[in-house]
Amino acid sequence: MSTHIQQKNIEELQQTALKLYGRYELDKSLLWFVEEVGEIVSGIRKKKSKEHIEGEIGDALAWIFSLSNILDIKVEAALRGTMEKEISRQLKAYGRLKYTEERRNAVIRGNLIIG
Asked: Which domains are delineated in the chain?
């Protein structure tokens, strides 16, 4: 049996996390998440390898999915809302997306930001 997770979208990954971790206790999940974020920071400050930091980010993301499942929040919708809010903020503040050449007429279509 293969343990390789095929490429999935965020919603599918959240469902996989639910199957793996269930709906763990909220308070304990919060503590595990904070611990994982601390391990990311520690790895960066100690100049650990990219692979090490990648693993810690993966661990933190797993806890984000777990917390989201406990709280019945869709990660994809939360992330999309945050990005749309930031796009609007940057367009208002700079007349473009700060780190690209997209201009004020940039719009979101599917997964792409196009001008």
From this structure: 9-73 (1.10.287.1080), 77-115 (no CATH)
Q: What is the pTM of this model?
A: 0.80
Q: How far apart are CA 50 and CA 15, in angstroms?
A: 27
For residue 103, give Cα distances in angstroms to 35, 38, 86: 40, 37, 14
Q: Tell how far CA 56 is from the center of its chain.
A: 13
- 65 pLDDT higher than 50: yes
Q: Is 18 exposed, middle or buried (0-12, 13-18, 19+ CB in 10 A)?
A: middle
